[in-house]
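Researcher: We're teaching a course module on how sequence relates to structure. For the next exercise, students receive a sequence and then see the predicted structure as tokens, so they can try to spot secondary structure elements on their own. Here is the exercise chain.
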Amino acid sequence: MRSMHFSRACVAALFAALLLTTVNALAKDGRDFAGFYNLAHTKIQGDHVRLTLNLQVHNNGSADVRQAVITLRQNTGLELAGTTKPVTLLRLHGHVNLSQQFTISRREYESWRQGNSPDMTIIYRANGKTWERSIQLAPKNGL
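Model: And here is the predicted structure for the students to work with:
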């Protein structure tokens, strides 16, 4: 009797896990944009750091993206550190390389050096709406 009760619990848990996995797989905007970054020309100026952020952003979404702007937020996403020039076209399954100078807090810079990635989002218009999506970034040398 006890083993049958355990079996039903296992089946229920497996079903729940399968359902959650399916929902995550169908989420279109979970990882639509990803890429790599590296830092160059870093200059520490007191409590601030001026640097060049080199990006390679991949469009893994469901459509081409036109006239997109990429933003950098710092200090837990509250403060806008700046934006890139507009990206004319980022094709579906394509990528774009960007290089932009930013001034960030020294605290933010130290956070990146300890393994945290820059908080970057891409903002674009599609289907009559403005969309803002996170960009998952990983460090990479040689961009």
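Model: If you want an answer key for the exercise: The chain has two helices and eight strands. The longest helix spans residues 2-26.
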